[in-house]
Amino acid sequence: MSDPLDDDRIPPNQVLGHLWVMALVSVALGIVVAGLAIPFAGVLGFAARDVSDSMSNLPQGLETKPLAQASRIVAKDGTPIATLYDENRVNVPLTQVAPVMREAIISIEDYRFYQHGAIDLKGTLRALVTNQAAGETVQGGSSITQQMVKLTLLSQAKTKAEQRAAVEESVARKIKELRYAIAFEQEHSKDWILERYLNLAYFGDGVYGIQAAARHYFSTDAKRLTLGQAALLAGLVKNPVGYDPTRNPNKAFDRRNIVLERMAQLRAIPLDKAKAEAKKPLGLDITANRNGCMFSRAPFFCDYVVNYLLKDPSLGTSVEERKALLQSGGLTIKTTLDPRFQDAADAAVERYVYPTDNAIGGMAMVEPGTGAVRAIAQSRPMGLNTKRGESMINYVVPKEYGGSGGFLPGSTFKPFVLAAAIRQGIPLTTTFNAPPFLDLPQADFANCPGAGNFVGTWPVHNAGGQNAGARNLYTGTAGSINTFYAQLERKTGVCEPWQIANKLGVHVPVHERQPAMVLGTSVTSPLEVAEAYATFAARGVHCDARPVTALLDANKNVVKTYAKDCTQVLPSPVADAVDDVLQGAFKPGGTAYGIPISQPTAGKTGTETKSWATWLTGFTPNLAMSAFIGGVNSAGHPISLNGQSVGGRYISNGSGAGTTGPMWSAAMSAIAQWLPDLDFHKPDSADIKGVLVQVPSVGGMNPDDAQKVLEKAGFNVTISGGQVDSSYPQGTVAYTSPGGGATTGSGDLITIYISDGTPYVKPKPKKTKGGDKPSPTNGGGKPKPGH
């Protein structure tokens, strides 16, 4: 083919175009060769000195800021949860790029890259003339270094004006690019320039850089790219949209083969190999771009992580700065999520609450002693399609992290009053009569100092109008008796339960610090409740809930760690006693009795008035899980669950155990296999009054020794006067009341009876006038008359 510049058949209307070409070439020559006169400069009205002045006014070099890279959120075992990015890029060193990929990109973009300087005059002249003759862009004229400069300027542009300036077709931009290119060539190696170029380049379909492109189009790494794959990717950089193989496979096929042909022409590969490869299909193996939490395996846990980090001032002075760091910093965000627990939570919620139900189901799992959040799940998928039941609101976490206003917790608040009572020294055997209804003067409830007194009365009803009778802290809690707890709160006052709730992570505003608080009148979230109950499980050690353990930069260096933040907020004996009492929920007489458990479990049910929300929060010594189902209509407004169909079940009268219990049980049953079998600490009767303790058997012992054994067990002891019939030796213990093996409250009085050494013999009946009639006896369990 003849050189177009020598072709006398060029139409007159292209003459001016050729002059423009020559002028640009002259500019390039004038810049590179200092002091050389620029031919044809007069055609465009500028001179070499003008160019030289323009060059001298430019900065000597261009600062290369770190490239925007995608950040990854990973589970505690390192498995990926989500990817966050503005530009889907993962930087790799040149050594991690397949040699055939380097050959392909150099062959098609700048075949003399390693031979020329900042500008390839020969290549530029050829490309400009060829393109001018063809009337379109056939060959690239810019060197890889110049292209890298352009990409750098575009990548680092902060405003739209800077973005336009980075791509405008002007001599000024070309001069600026060339000046920067010269500086790069002087300061960096060719390998450094090629590496940055490959990491900067846009490869279409939302992917930047060779590693992201390899992963997206072929589900492989840049270092494993084959000849055909490399040729396809090398061909994309010229026109990433036009040659996008996912949208224009035929054009991508042709472009790939052009690259193969060019590689063969340059003897980078044998001709027969190029022809063989050109016959093969594209061989795409697409890995979808999944940017953000919506595509996460744990969408709402991911959303919680992002919002948690956006509130960390150490990551930036503004939310915008923190967001930019998360989306372009190439971070690895290590989290506390346990994929096994998350899968179990997702399966349970999906099974018992459908996305389009007039209800929300959700649960949170928190590890006692660390605050590590192991799972967050809810029934409405993340999304914008409300007809499919999707939502962008995270109903499981506090409002500042998820946007939900929260739900009324019902009786899940009662353990805070229980903890206050135990801490105040109220015996667990304290008994109140619990009638169906009480109307209590609010002035009886001592408020916090300086806060004033309450006025009026507070009407309290038991669920279903139940007359519960006499109840103590064990049985009143197990049955969740409202009128019992109203009387207990009257004894503790509202101040200390309110303080305890807030210290444990359930945030109750001051204006809601009132008597009805014990029945759950302040909205909260499952995560807050799980965090609070985890404190009981950790023997009074409260740990702030945290979803993140560490941030690593793109080079795997630790940027920041998120250590557990824990404080002893309850004395361990108090927490142990709370655990002891709350185990009653799963025992006969408890509101959660019948829900299967495979290891020691404590907890509390909660049902809000009219069943607007139902709860079950259960915990073992190593996991606290709070589950709830709340009535919410399509507009997001709270409604009663009664009369609704939830998860295919009709709810006539919602309850914590009946409505939410099965969902909680499904998740706990699945994860129990991974929880170590631990038991709760038995509360020390020397520290806690009224702990239910089994009376030791001391029959036959020396009375003084028996008294020491019983007192060590936490009982008060008295020795009865006189002696009773017993087969034990005279002067030893005959028996006690309550007897050995019985269960009673610590601190209760145990009476020791002394043996007379003669076994009790039941007297024979005496005949009386009117028939046989047994005579009164002492029953063998009472002192003989006169003893």
Spatial sequence of strands, sheet with the most strands: 2-1-3-11-12
- Give the quaternary arrangement of the chains: single chain
Percent range for β-strand residues: 15-25%
Mind telling me which CATH architecture of the domain at 88-120 and 136-278 this is? Orthogonal Bundle
Helix/strand class: alpha+beta
Spell out the CATH superfamily of the domain at 88-120 and 136-278: Biosynthetic peptidoglycan transglycosylase-like
Rg over C-alpha atoms, rounded to the nearest angstrom: 40 Å
- The residue ranges in which pLDDT falls below 50 over 5 or more consecutive positions are 1-22, 27-52, 768-787
Beta strand count: 25
The rounded distance between the terminal residues' Cα atoms is 135 Å
Question: Class of the domain at 88-120 and 136-278 in CATH?
Answer: Mainly Alpha
- Helical content band: 25-40%
Mean pLDDT: 87
The 3D shape can be described as: elongated
The CATH topology name of the domain at 88-120 and 136-278 reads: Penicillin binding protein transpeptidase fold
* Largest sheet data: 5 strands, mixed
Number of contiguous helices: 25
